[in-house]
Amino acid sequence: MKTNTTTSGSKSRLWIAVPAVSFGGIGIELLLASVGFPYAIWAGIAGCVAASCILCYQAYLKPRRDLVSLFTPLFAFLIFVVPNDLDPGVLVQTIFSATIVFLAVRVEKLFNAPKAEEKTMKQILNEYIDRIEPVFAAIDGETGHLIAQSLLTYKFELYGSAAEKMTAALARLDAITPHPGALERALLILRERAGGFAESRVTVNPEHTFTEADYDDLAIRLRPDQIDDPAALDLDNALVLLYAVGIETSPDDEQALEEHQRFIIQILESYKEKLAA
């Protein structure tokens, strides 16, 4: 999932120096040649080589690197300095200058955008935990322990015991102010599902669901057109929310929850493409 970015590239006008130096050198060469200066060609060559170095530096400054532009000083050296069959005169200099000017514009237009970096699902989970700190800020250790144990016993398929622990946790939530509505609904959603499993039945039309008011406290937030199964989405959000609250409020269960973190990561990964969209 690509959500992080590096800093954007330089906003300078360094690329303008590429045509200025390269074609400027050719212009000086023509001027010197018109007065019969025997080494006039070196002015044009120097301009092309210097401009290629400027292009290389311009490309190096960008967050995304263009390898062709980075190697233009080498091409200039091979064309103009190393003896070869090419005539390093005005025609070759002009073609080379036009090429590196094109590359300079290309680098500025295409390689100046920030480079996307892919976040891991663990990073996304940690950011989610940081984001919902107000949800668990008022949760005491005993309530947090009940929440953590509710999730763990559910994960171990001890559905009857899980439902009992959730009922106990819900009773303690009633005394908390401000009332953590999203957390209460997460427990109700999971308890309803656990109760169904305990009776060997699947809850097809659940009574308890998250509301619009809970949206900011959920890890998996999708557009309506992206939701294929609202009940499954509510269950997954409930599991992630209970994990986040449990691991932050119950130090006694932290290690056990971390051992089952992969379970939560897999839930998030199943929504990776939709979250990226």
TrEMBL record:
Listed transmembrane segments: 12-33, 39-60, 67-84, 90-107
Keyword field: Membrane, Transmembrane, Transmembrane helix
The protein's name: Uncharacterized protein
Domain of life: Archaea
